[in-house]
């Protein structure tokens, strides 16, 4: 029987994560009456359809009248772009908390390169499983993930995993996986190119792979011919490039489905401030704005922020400001069911500078630097706040 280590060695490190029926899923998340029912977002033109509507033939960009003829019992809702942007930001926060190598393709999908995280976080498969769990638990949305050695294969795998699935393309089974697919699955093959390939009796990726680049060039043109031949034979040299310098650094923690208390939210916020403070200093940045994000049981989100007189890299300053923002919401937190707390630092400066506020006196950078060194060498659990001891708080992952 093949051991798990051997299985992990056959798995690539590229993830393609794609939210399922994104707009419609947000609507179903926020309105329980829509769950399990066919939902169409948009009136005159379909912007998105739930999987229940898609099963009846409804497709994106279809005319509204045609969609209702196919699915007369569909519930049509107007788009709420602010809700979609907020959900996307929350999901991408999780992506960037997973790996710094994230390439966004759209508001609801991205490539993540986790190949360099094996020693720190483990192999790609458990990372992908944890990512899916977090998106569901923290944002309330289903997401499908494909895992492969290349971006192209990972994207195909996530499409085949839908809805709400996970599919791995093992490195020693790539061509077997690829060659059984129809030519329409090749990246860049639309209706026109597919028609040209079909006219040449090329219907599967295997058919395309058997052609030379020159033969394909005669059918679809030189550039497209070389591109399709490379993909059909398993070659995709593109890398997941790092995004430009971050505009913010953040972290969040789900508090579970129960009624978390203000004290529990405060403890979680403290640990998150420790985490983002380490990241801020490791990146050589300083932040001028602290934002606290809350999510409640009905998936309602709330944010509050404070801009500082000068940028800071101090955990003590960040935590003091963040806790003040949280205390301002104490009545709401104790009244409603809070399920998630997060903190984000923005207004980033490339040069760390120390801010001294009257509320905390002169902050000592040596303390932060010492704690960073301890965490780097022995892990984040090596030094804990006294308030966290015996309270069940555990860091979600090793220092990143």
TrEMBL record:
Its cofactor is Mg(2+). Belongs to the DNA polymerase type-Y family. The keyword DNA-binding applies. Its EC number is 2.7.7.7. Binds 2 magnesium ions per subunit. It catalyses: DNA(n) + a 2'-deoxyribonucleoside 5'-triphosphate = DNA(n+1) + diphosphate. This is DNA polymerase IV. Its main location: cytoplasm. One of its GO terms (molecular function) is magnesium ion binding. Mg(2+) binds at residues 18, 108. Poorly processive, error-prone DNA polymerase involved in untargeted mutagenesis. Copies undamaged DNA at stalled replication forks, which arise in vivo from mismatched or misaligned primer ends. These misaligned primers can be extended by PolIV. Exhibits no 3'-5' exonuclease (proofreading) activity. May be involved in translesional synthesis, in conjunction with the beta clamp from PolIII. The gene is dinB_1. Residues 14-190 form the UmuC domain. Keywords: Cytoplasm, DNA damage, DNA repair, DNA replication, DNA-binding, DNA-directed DNA polymerase, Magnesium, Metal-binding, Mutator protein, Nucleotidyltransferase, Transferase. Monomer. The active site is at 109.
């Amino acid at each position: 029987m093949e051991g798990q280590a051997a299985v992990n060695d056959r798995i690539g490190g590229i993830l393609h994560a794609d939210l399922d029926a994104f707009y419609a899923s947000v609507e179903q998340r926020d309105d329980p009456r829509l769950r399990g029912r066919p939902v169409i977002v948009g009136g005159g033109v379909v912007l998105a359809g739930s999987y229940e509507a898609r099963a009846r033939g409804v497709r994106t960009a279809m005319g509204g009248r045609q969609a209702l003829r196919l699915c007369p019992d569909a519930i049509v809702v107007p788009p709420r772009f602010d809700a979609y942007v907020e959900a996307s930001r929350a999901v991408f926060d999780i992506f960037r908390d997973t790996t710094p190598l994230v390439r966004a393709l759209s508001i609801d999908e991205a490539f993540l390169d986790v190949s360099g995280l094996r020693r720190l976080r483990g192999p790609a498969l458990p990372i992908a499983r944890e990512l899916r769990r977090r998106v569901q638990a923290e944002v309330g949305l289903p997401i499908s993930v494909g895992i492969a050695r290349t971006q192209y294969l990972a994207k195909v795998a996530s499409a085949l995993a839908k809805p709400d699935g996970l599919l791995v393309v093992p490195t020693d089974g790539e061509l077997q996986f690829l060659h059984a697919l129809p030519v329409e699955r090749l990246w860049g093959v639309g209706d026109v190119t597919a028609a040209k390939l079909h006219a040449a009796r090329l219907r599967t990726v295997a058919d395309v792979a058997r052609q030379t680049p020159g033969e394909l060039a005669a059918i679809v043109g030189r550039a497209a011919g070389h591109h399709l031949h490379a993909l059909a034979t398993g070659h995709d040299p593109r890398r997941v490039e790092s995004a430009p310098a971050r505009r913010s650094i953040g972290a969040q923690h789900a508090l579970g489905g129960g009624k978390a208390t203000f004290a529990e939210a405060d403890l979680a916020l403290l640990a998150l401030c420790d985490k983002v403070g380490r990241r801020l200093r490791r990146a050589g940045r300083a932040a001028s704005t602290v934002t606290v994000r809350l999510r409640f049981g009905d998936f309602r989100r709330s944010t509050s922020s404070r801009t500082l007189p000068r940028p800071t890299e101090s955990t003590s300053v960040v935590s003091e400001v963040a806790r003040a923002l949280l205390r301002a919401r104490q009545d709401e937190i104790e009244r409603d069911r809070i399920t998630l707390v997060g903190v984000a630092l923005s207004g980033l400066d490339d040069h760390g500078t120390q801010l001294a506020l009257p509320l905390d006196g002169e902050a000592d950078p040596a303390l932060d630097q010492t704690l960073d060194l301890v965490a780097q060498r022995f892990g984040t659990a090596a030094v804990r706040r006294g308030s966290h001891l015996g309270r069940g708080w555990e860091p979600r992952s090793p220092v990143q």
